[in-house]
Every structure is written in structure tokens, then in C-alpha cells.
Amino acid sequence: MALAFQRPVGRPATASRPASRRAPALRIVSAAATAPAPSPSSSASSVPASKLIDGKGIADTIRSEIAAEVAQLKAKHNLTPGLAVVLVGARKDSETYVRSKKKACAEVGFDSYGTDLPADVSEEELLKVVAAYNADPRVHGILVQLPLPKHISEKRILDAISIEKDVDGFHPLNIGALAMRGRDPLFVPCTPKGCIELLERLKVPISGRTACVIGRSNIVGMPAALLLQRRDATVTMVHSKTPDAAKICGEADIVIAACGVAEMVKGDWIKPGAVVIDVGINAKDDPTAKKGYRLVGDVDFEAAGARASLITPVPGGVGPMTIAMLLQNTLESARRAAKH
Ligand code: GUN
């Protein structure tokens, strides 16, 4: 089967798509959302601005740092970092995220390569696409947007991505290294890496503190817990089968919520003074909103914000950091390639 779409682009490949294929307003959203976010402007919020973690602002700073480094790489080594993004099917949320990733690449001076495949593409065809990007020296990072259609084995696809180009950090060898003391993965998954980057840039102490990670997904919860543990936090993971999650969460200095359930984490789950990182992004019906819905996180923002010392808003918190970390991973990969 011919590739539906494969080319290097100076600007996002999706820019040339017919309007009918472009995603309408975000309606389906996932826990590890990477959609660009408007700045948190909930004027009705009672959470003081001093408690808000400005993920968008921090991500913008990181993106400027990356753009400056890209310019240097080009000047000194004649090397342009390249990211290949593979999209299977036409899920509106995935299309939105992929478009954002390609746009971000163009903005920092990366080359982006895109392959859009129909939802019924065979696993073998997808593996061929991955193999071609593995072999392409212009490509330093490969990202296959998840979730994949049910007939495709996510495991087989992720295993096939070269660990040197696994900028998502989802390859079992990278996750395995993350889990082991004395080993360092080549890449760390972007959303949890972004959560830790927020904590570190805000100088939130992690070592010796208690942390609660809500949700145990491969993409966010599990690697977030490993990253906190590597920084010497005492980490508890809670999930759908945990009795008394509220009590466990209530003992944590740092909370990372990534359960994918709108506003599941209530105000009284939060220890006074805790730092709350909300990875969730969920559409909640709101007849007063222009679009009929608004975006909320996995945390009840108003109630939790009353007790927390710092809290990420949704949108404008973790989402922009995910893309910034993807760019950072891709830049790191290109730097490694320059050394070879
Ligand atoms: N789907 C939701 N989040 C992600 C992500 O970070 N990477 C990929 N590849 N797919 C996703």
C-alpha cells in the first residue's frame, strides 16, 4: 500500500490538508493531552494567581532555548533536528495533537516529517513506515501517535522504533532503564518529564518528600512515579482499585493526577500546602460556554487550589510542557547524532 502522506516539511504537513479533514474544536480529549492551550483566563476563579503554575510560560521559555540551540547546531554542524510523526486513522484528538507537534517543530527550526495512514492500514505497512524512519539519517525522533486502532499491536509498533530515535520514551528498553537504579534511559516520556521539569524550574523540593501519583498508565502515571522515585521522593501510586485513595493522596506533598477522569481529585484529597500537577484534560458540558463545553482537569481546580500551595491550571499547565519535552528529546537525539 502506498503511503498516504510522507514528506519533509518546513512547516506542518497538515497545513496543506483539505479543510474538511481538519479537526474541529477539541471535543474528545485524552489524559496526556498535548493540545496548545490558551492561557488560563478563568476570571471567575478564586485561586490566586500566585498559586498558578504557568506551564505555558515555562514551555515558551524552553522552546526559545531550544530554538537558540537549533540555530547553533545548524551553524556549527550543518545539522537540522528532524522529527517524524506517524498518525493512523482520523481521531480528532490525535489529529489535533499531531498538528500541534508539527507546528512546534517548525517554530523551533526542526524539520518535521509526517506519515498519515488510514485507520485500516495493516500492522505490516505501519512497521515498514517505522523501519523507513529508523533508517533515515535526517530523522532523529520518531513518534507514532497513540492510541492505535485495535487491530494493530501497540506493543509490536513501539518495540520496532529504534531506541536511539524513541523520543516518546515508550520503548521497553528505555522504560526498563528508567526503572533501574544505575541506568539512564536515552529518552524519558514527555508528559511525566514535563511534570518534573515544572517542579524543578519552580524549585519545588522532591527529595525526601511524599508524592502521590494518581493513575498508572504507561504514558504518564508509571513513568511519573519512576521519575519521582529517582529523585528520592517516597512515592505512592493510586488507581481505580485503591481503597481510600483520598486518604493516601491527602498525605502527599506532591500530587500528580493522571487518571483521565474529570475532576476526580477533590479538594479534601489535598494536603494543605501540597503542590498539585494536573495532567488531565477532559471536556465538561457547560451551557454558559461558547462551545457548550469547557476543559477541566482530573482535579477539582477550585477546591484543590484553595488548599494547594501551587497548582497547574487546565488548560495552560502540563499540556504545553509535553510538546516542549518532545522538542527537547528530539534536540538531544540530534546532538547525539552530531557526536557520532
Ligand atoms: N497519545 C497521547 N499522548 C501521547 C504521547 O505523548 N505520545 C504518543 N505517541 N501518543 C500519545
Automatic annotation (TrEMBL):
Protein name: Methenyltetrahydrofolate cyclohydrolase
Pathway field: One-carbon metabolism; tetrahydrofolate interconversion
UniProt entry keywords in alphabetical sequence: Hydrolase, Multifunctional enzyme, NADP, One-carbon metabolism, Oxidoreductase
Lineage per the UniProt record: Eukaryota, Viridiplantae, Chlorophyta, core chlorophytes, Chlorophyceae
Subunit and partners: Homodimer.
Annotated catalysed reactions: (6R)-5,10-methenyltetrahydrofolate + H2O = (6R)-10-formyltetrahydrofolate + H(+); (6R)-5,10-methylene-5,6,7,8-tetrahydrofolate + NADP(+) = (6R)-5,10-methenyltetrahydrofolate + NADPH
Ranges where the record places region Disordered: 1-23
Domain Tetrahydrofolate dehydrogenase/cyclohydrolase NAD(P)-binding positions: 189-336
GO biological process, one term: tetrahydrofolate interconversion
Limits of the Tetrahydrofolate dehydrogenase/cyclohydrolase catalytic domain: 53-168
Signal sequence bounds: none
Family: Belongs to the tetrahydrofolate dehydrogenase/cyclohydrolase family.
InterPro entries: Aminoacid_DH-like_N_sf, NAD(P)-bd_dom_sf, THF_DH/CycHdrlase, THF_DH/CycHdrlase_cat_dom, THF_DH/CycHdrlase_CS, THF_DH/CycHdrlase_NAD-bd_dom
Function of the molecule: Catalyzes the oxidation of 5,10-methylenetetrahydrofolate to 5,10-methenyltetrahydrofolate and then the hydrolysis of 5,10-methenyltetrahydrofolate to 10-formyltetrahydrofolate.
Pfam families, alphabetized: THF_DHG_CYH (PF00763), THF_DHG_CYH_C (PF02882)
Bias-annotated ranges (Low complexity): 11-23
UniProt-recorded Gene Ontology molecular function terms: methenyltetrahydrofolate cyclohydrolase activity; methylenetetrahydrofolate dehydrogenase (NADP+) activity
Gene Ontology CC entries for this record: cytosol
Gene3D superfamilies hit by this protein: Leucine Dehydrogenase, chain A, domain 1 (3.40.50.10860), NAD(P)-binding Rossmann-like Domain (3.40.50.720)
